[in-house]
Write a structure and sequence with these properties.
- The structure is a single chain.
- This protein is of the alpha+beta class.
- The protein has one domain (2-174).
- The protein has four helices and eight strands.
- Strands 1, 2, 3, 4, 7 and 8 form a six-stranded mixed beta sheet that branches.
- The relative contact order is 0.16.
């Protein structure tokens, strides 16, 4: 009975991740770390205060390649209103960025749980049961207004990629701040 239950949980995990976090994608666009624009010259106020505006802002800053195709995420498991994933390369390192937008006036229980986990631990769990049955934790960051959540994963820990991740996260954290 336990083996069957474990198999069902494993199978449901595969199905949810396949649907929630997208599947496959186009070839990865390359970005050079020296391509980032001067953030001081870009006016945050000129962007719409939604996920599309945030993504355009990050593209204009040079943090997401202009030609990168967003993969829409089915993000109801996280209680998010909208979400996209970008996969690209930075100086040869592979980067996976997931951006989520929340309707802060209408948070459901899943959204409250995820936002609470990120505020407390700096990570969230897809199925809500912290660490149960191999439930993976995802490092994430919230914007100051708690409207946007970003998960940024890079397969390199060299100094240039670490700084770029910090700069990227800082741009999201401060976007559309109250």
């Amino acid at each position: 009975m336990k083996k069957i239950l474990l198999f069902v949980i494993l199978l449901s995990t595969i199905v949810v991740f396949g649907g929630c976090f997208g599947a496959g994608g186009p070839s990865l666009e390359e970005v050079k770390t020296d391509a980032a624009a001067d953030a001081e010259k870009i006016k945050m106020d000129s962007y719409t205060k939604d996920l599309v505006g945030l993504e355009k802002y990050l593209i204009d800053l040079g943090y997401i390649p202009e030609k990168a195709e967003p993969q829409e995420l089915m993000c109801s498991v996280l209680g998010a209103k909208d979400g996209d994933r970008f996969n690209f390369k930075v100086d040869g390192a592979v980067v996976y960025v997931e951006l989520f937008e929340y309707d802060t006036d209408n948070l459901n229980d899943d959204a409250k749980r995820v936002i609470g986990e990120v505020e407390k631990d700096g990570k969230y769990y897809v199925f809500g049961e912290t660490g149960v049955n191999g439930n993976a934790a995802y490092e994430a960051f919230l914007s100051k207004n708690k409207k946007y959540l970003v998960s940024y994963t890079v397969n390199s820990d060299d100094e240039s990629n670490t700084k770029r991740k910090d700069d990227f996260v800082n741009a999201v954290v401060n976007f559309d701040k109250d």
